[in-house]
Amino acid sequence: MSSDREKIFSAIRAALDPLPKRTAKPEWKRELIVCNPSGEFSSLKEQLADKLVFASSRYCDSFDQLAETLKAENSTFGYCDPELAPLFEKLDGITFETEYDVAKVNEYTFGITKASAAIAESGTIVLKDGDTSSRMGALTPWIHIAAIKESDIVATIPEAIDRFGDDPSIVFCTGPSKTADVEGILIEGVHGPGIQIGFILS
Amino acid sequence: MKSKQKIDLVARDLTNEVHEANFIGAKMKSERRYAALGRDYADPDKLRETAGLVKQHTLEHLDKYLEQAEASFERNGAKVHFAFDEDTAKKTVLNIMNEHGCKSMVKSKSMLTEELELLHYLEDQGKEVIETDLGEFILQIDNDHPSHIVTPIVHKNRRGIAKSFEREGLGDYNDDPETITRRARAHLRQKYLDADIGLTGANFVSAESGRIVLVTNEGNARFCMAANKVHIAIVGIEKIVPTDQDLGLFLNLIGRSGTGQQLTVYNQFIGGPKLKDQPNGPEHMHVIFVDNRRTEVLASDCREILRCIRCGACLNVCPIYRQSGGHAYRSVYPGPVGAVLSPLLAGNRFPELADLPKASSLCGACNEVCPVNIPIPDLLLRLRDKAKREGAKEAMKGTPNLAMWATMCSQPTMWKAALTMGHTMNHIPTQLIPHPSAMSWQGTRKLPKFEGGEFRKWFKNRK
Amino acid sequence: MSLLHTPPNRPTGKSVQLMTTCLCDAFYSDVAKATVEILDFLGCEIELPDGQTCCGQPAFNAGDWANSRKVIRHAEKTFSGDKPIIVPSGSCAAMIFHGALLAFEKEEDLPAIKAFGERTWELVDYIVYGLGITQWPGKFDAKMTFHRSCHLRGSRSPEAVNALLTSIEGVDLQPIDEVEQCCGFGGTFSVSFPNISEKMGELKIENLTACKPDVVAAGDMGCMMHFGGMMDKQGMPYKRMHIAQVLRDSLKNAGKL
Lengths: 202, 463, 257
What we know:
The complex is a heterotrimer.
Chain A: H1 4-16, H2 44-54, E1 58-60, H3 63-72, E2 77-80, H4 85-88, E3 95-97, E4 110-114, E5 117-119, E6 124-128, H5 135-139, E7 143-149, E8 153-154, H6 157-162, E9 169-173, E10 178-179, E11 187-188, E12 195-201
Parallel strand pairs in A: 1-12, 2-3, 2-4, 4-7, 5-8, 7-12
Antiparallel strand pairs in A: 5-6, 6-9, 10-11
Chain B: H1 6-13, H2 16-40, H3 44-59, H4 62-75, E1 79-83, H5 86-99, E2 104-107, H6 111-116, H7 118-124, E3 128-131, H8 134-142, H9 158-167, H10 177-194, E4 197-200, E5 204-206, E6 211-216, H11 220-223, E7 230-236, E8 240-241, H12 244-258, E9 266-270, E10 284-290, H13 294-299, H14 313-317, H15 319-324, H16 335-345, H17 365-369, H18 376-389, H19 393-396, H20 403-409, H21 412-421, H22 436-441, H23 454-461
Parallel strand pairs in B: 1-10, 2-3, 2-4, 4-7, 5-8, 7-10
Antiparallel strand pairs in B: 5-6, 6-9
Helix pairs in contact in B: 2-12, 3-12, 16-18
Chain C: E1 15-18, H1 22-26, H2 29-41, E2 45-47, H3 57-62, H4 65-78, E3 85-87, H5 90-103, H6 110-117, E4 120-122, H7 123-130, E5 139-147, H8 157-167, E6 169-173, H9 189-192, H10 194-209, E7 215-218, H11 221-233, E8 239-242, H12 243-253
Parallel strand pairs in C: 1-2, 1-3, 3-4, 5-6, 5-7, 7-8
């Protein structure tokens, strides 16, 4: 008896053999899928800031402002990537742990992790497993703060794909977790963050 | 009105509430689609055309790309399985669970698992399975089925959902959508933490790099790969695209086409188990490639339907779907794509679903919005021809016999005689015309007056 | 937003064959007359093949391809030659240059059927893209809506209609909501799915008449027979005209005919 693998491959070949000719792969240029620019931007950082907001994420580039935002959301205890801890320790009135403890899943109200890149055209934050200190830390708190180095901002989606390398788990985050399952009404914060912040490290 | 067609009867008998929910949901998504694509691209048709050709190319070289995908996944440390039919697919999932000693599964949305009825199978085998997509979770507690590919509970309203939550002990009756969502968040969070295996589908597979791509808004697929140690991706063999860069084309189209989002919130590219230094996430990744009659579709003259990326745009724009809702299609895939795919995937049960391709005015809106430019009306027509040739009764119900008409139309003398004789019809009260089509027609419409031959006479005598 | 289905390089000369369509032959003789009058005005020499009947679409859509092919074969023989074939219907035109190719994809005489399609034009497509006329020298004081019949998709007819109508002095062409939605005719569909067909018709009528137009226009008498029949049954007052009638009457109003 042949294996399922063989069955599938022979069924595919039997289906395709009678075709008189087969469709060639179309040549297409990256420009084809790049969004029409809406608005004029002097830098990728400026464009990213605009597009983050368009995608219902938030943009931030000041520690003071971030501390204010967290306090305003009643979010003063969270998780932070140990490598980023020295930078974020200066947040006034905010405390965090650098080792994610699953038992505290509902206590961490924010999570700070590194972004591997950000895409200016779509306001997308790119998380790669290799740069993410804890998948849970980036996913479970109500607020996720992705720390983006300005030099890691790319213009387009194809450029972000160029940087995939051999990382096994890459996530594009374009906005907070959301659903419109109930009567088409948009609700943010389903399983993941209800607030997504892109924090630019200059 | 009387009708012999099942979908027409469902549309007739739908409650106002459900009809409104279906109709408004679909119309809203269609409008957002037009707005998003028009805003972002000067010529969206060029993207649709290119994406269609990329998928058609992949399908017509599927042996090569499937082999490449298999090798890439194995290189990435994932285990690859193949399942020719439904039975093997389900057993493969069960075996993987048993092999890793898994008892409870969290799963994200996958139309393929709906095809397989995987959930019930695993439950029968003593496993706990939790749907984590909010809509799918609600369907699970209600023992209901999705009525739409992207928005599975578009047929439900908040009051019904609130009642179900109350019944399931998720809190007192509260029909505020935000409260419903928060309660599901809290409830499912514990399920993710308790589960030992996560199962996802795949929206795309890159053959080049051995990555599955998952497209979600809620983030549930991320969670299905965060707290547990094993991940299964169950994938239809038609999901493959050649390269990572090709993915950009499809990701730009799928969100805009389905919901009018520039990108769906989360696009995940998963190629293998987690990195060693990553504290969370699966240590094992299994990819199951499932055929389940896809190679039969590939061998048919409707193979273009396998390009489908399940965005739901054809449902949303379809005037018949808007009237009937998804359940009317009596199968996993509703709407125009379902009217083609479901009868084909039904195998020898084709005659039972042969009426689905008839549920279309062939208006072509589905093709016009399809991100991979599937010629859906042409495929519906080919299936109508197939149904007629095979004598599938469901298809022909209510369709007038056109043999006499064809004879008349291929003999000019008969045609001209009929044109003149037609005038006598003007003198018969229309309700007495004994033809079933005319009777059905004139229930809501006035019949036009016969003027047969007048134009020909005028043309001959002009100038 | 639709990719073109129309054949490339169709003949464009002014010596044409007219396909009246079965509906105009049997019910709507004035639409056929209007078509002739505007083609005359444009200086075309019109041949009306006497043996013509129907394009075969009713059986094709019903899934009865064997009977459909019988009718298409007859039509192909009736319209022999190499002149452009002009049809005052987007639906019949699309049947010939697109649908017939499907019905004949496994048939030996596919090349003849293909050649037939490669000469076929929807009327307004022909006027604008065949003859290059983008301004219509007529006059018609009316607020108007236009039903973009579904089988104009995949052709440049919608742009052509828009160009001509908006160029007519006095025409106030109003946009309609949900322009992409079908009116619910669909040939035998309207008979076998009467409930859905009627609901679709209601929505289309609502959109077409929302601005209280003086004239509701369309390029296909199939659609108009269906939603017009509904309007008549309900006693709705709106005047309905085929695009050929609008073009013809506008010339009369301008004293050019």
